[in-house]
Design goal:
This protein is α/β, with parallel strands linked by helices. The chain has 16 helices and ten strands. The protein has helices at about 10-20, 35-45, 65-70, 85-90, 115-125, 140, 155-165, 180-200, 205-225, 230-235, 235-250, 255-260, 265-275, 280-295, 300-310, 315-320, and strands at about 5, 25-30, 45, 50-55, 60, 75, 100-105, 130-135, 145-150, 170-175. The strands form two sheets. Strands 5-2-1-6-7-8-9-10 form an eight-stranded mixed beta sheet, with helices on both faces. Strands 3-4 form a two-stranded antiparallel sheet. A hairpin with a 3-residue loop joins strand 3 and strand 4 (about 50-55). The longest helix has 23 residues, at about 180-200. The radius of gyration is 20 Å and the shape is globular. The N and C termini lie far apart (about 60 Å).
């Protein structure tokens, strides 16, 4: 049995806390929001983020981050990307040398263009940081619906340790050394999912969705490999797998926000209606900054940025994508 602190009590953090508890581990969940912790303690259910999923009586909930992290074998970082750095800063005095931290959130920090694990490593250099990602909606994991993900770590023994902690008969865990590729796939797919949602909101069909998914993973792999990620990673669970589920499911907050934007709402109105952090909005700008730095073309992500931040009509963005210069699908295939 391991002692685990889940840092962040959103839908994903709560679902993983329940998973780890069912696997026989001692679990403490932290949130900075007193009303949220009070609800979890009293109701044993996250009525806002994960309704219908009951939490066990022996799971602990606290607003004291130092107490949550004390003497833990594992810290699960499940806070929105916007709060990753500030949350890591709060743990500087609590995290011991060699502490294993697994980041399960998705995003890229605007301006620094750092992935979330890189932010944690920068703030907590004494820790050993791994990542978990893949096609995995919290709503389904919380209900025990079969799910498969990938854990990334630079050390194989750490990856295997985490694999053993998380894996059970409904939650299959693969391992990989490509931490960077896993995180880039996880963050960038949210931007493409916004595009897929916008297309849905405009009333387009399956042909359009399939094109966005296929060309979207091409863009993700193009930037990801330029940055040092492995092409095979983008063909796997945290690449095409996560992209498919995020573009296709109404559980996806990014797709839902995109649908609202496609129907004419502003970015701000869409985020307000979704009532959850829409990570793709924050990763979109960072992706374009990275595209400039690594000199790669990201036409879908570029058009998403124009719709989000330059108020370009969504139907015009789609038309501009369709009327781009003629291309060969894969220039690496010889005639």
């Amino acid at each position: 049995m391991a002692a685990v602190a889940v840092i962040g009590a959103g839908s994903w953090g709560t679902a993983l806390a329940l998973l780890l508890h069912k696997n026989g581990h001692q679990v403490t969940v932290w949130s900075p929001i007193e009303s949220e912790i009070a609800m979890l303690n009293q109701e044993r259910e996250h009525k806002d983020k994960l309704p219908g999923v009951k939490l066990p009586e022996d799971m602990d909930f606290t607003c004291d981050i130092a107490q949550a992290a004390e003497e833990k074998d594992l810290l699960v970082f499940a806070v929105p990307s916007l709060f990753t750095r500030s949350t890591a800063e709060k743990l500087k005095r609590s995290v011991k040398q060699g502490q294993i931290i697994i980041n399960v959130s998705k995003g890229i920090e605007e301006h620094t263009q750092l992935t979330l694990s890189q932010i944690i490593e920068e703030e907590l250099p004494q820790a050993e940081v791994a990542v978990l990602s893949g096609p995995s909606h919290a709503e389904e994991v919380g209900k025990g619906i079969p799910t498969t993900i990938v854990v990334g770590s630079r050390k194989k023994e750490t990856a295997e340790y985490l694999q053993n902690l998380f894996m059970n008969d409904v939650f299959r865990v693969y391992i990989s050394p490509d931490v960077l590729g896993i995180e880039l796939g996880a963050a960038l797919k949210n931007v493409v999912a916004l595009a897929a949602g916008i297309a849905d909101g405009l009333g387009y069909g399956d042909n359009t969705k399939a094109a966005l998914i296929t060309r979207g993973i091409t863009e993700i792999a193009r930037l990801g490999t330029a940055m040092g990620g492995k092409f095979e990673t983008f063909c796997g669970l945290s690449g095409i797998g996560d992209l498919i589920v995020t573009c296709a499911s109404m559980h996806s907050r990014n797709r839902r926000a995109g649908i609202l934007i496609g129907r004419g709402k502003s970015m701000e109105e869409a985020m307000e209606e979704v009532k959850m952090v829409v990570e793709g909005v924050y990763s979109a700008k960072a992706a374009m900054e990275l595209a400039g730095k690594y000199q790669v073309q990201l036409p879908i992500i570029e058009q998403v940025n124009k719709v989000l931040f330059e108020h370009k009509p969504a139907d015009e963005a789609v038309k501009d994508l369709m009327l781009r210069d003629k291309k060969i699908e894969n220039p690496l295939i010889p005639w």
